[in-house]
UniProtKB/TrEMBL annotation:
<protein>
    <submittedName>
        <fullName>ATP-binding cassette domain-containing protein</fullName>
    </submittedName>
</protein>
<keyword id="KW-0067">ATP-binding</keyword>
<dbReference type="InterPro" id="IPR003439">
    <property type="entry name" value="ABC_transporter-like_ATP-bd"/>
</dbReference>
<dbReference type="InterPro" id="IPR039421">
    <property type="entry name" value="Type_1_exporter"/>
</dbReference>
<dbReference type="GO" id="GO:0005524">
    <property type="term" value="F:ATP binding"/>
</dbReference>
<dbReference type="GO" id="GO:0042626">
    <property type="term" value="F:ATPase-coupled transmembrane transporter activity"/>
</dbReference>
<feature type="domain" description="ABC transporter">
    <location>
        <begin position="22"/>
        <end position="66"/>
    </location>
</feature>
<keyword id="KW-0547">Nucleotide-binding</keyword>
<dbReference type="GO" id="GO:0016887">
    <property type="term" value="F:ATP hydrolysis activity"/>
</dbReference>
<dbReference type="InterPro" id="IPR027417">
    <property type="entry name" value="P-loop_NTPase"/>
</dbReference>
<dbReference type="Pfam" id="PF00005">
    <property type="entry name" value="ABC_tran"/>
</dbReference>
Amino acid sequence: PLGRVVLEKVSFRYEQDRPLIEDLSLTVEPGRTVAVVGPTGAGKTTLVNLLMRFYEVTGGRITLDGV
C-alpha cells in the first residue's frame, strides 16, 4: 500500500544559531496513525509544516513512498 512516510536524520532551524529539530529519524508505515505531542514550542507544528513542504529541511530528508 502507498503512504509510507520516512524522515531520515531531519534537522531544521528558523535561525542559523538556533536549532529546533536535530537528527530526527522516523518511519510511519501505510495505514498507521501517529500522534505528535509535547509542550508549547517543542516543534509539533513545525514538524507538520515540514511534512507539507511549507519549509525545507536544513539537513536530512523527508520522503513519501520513496520520493
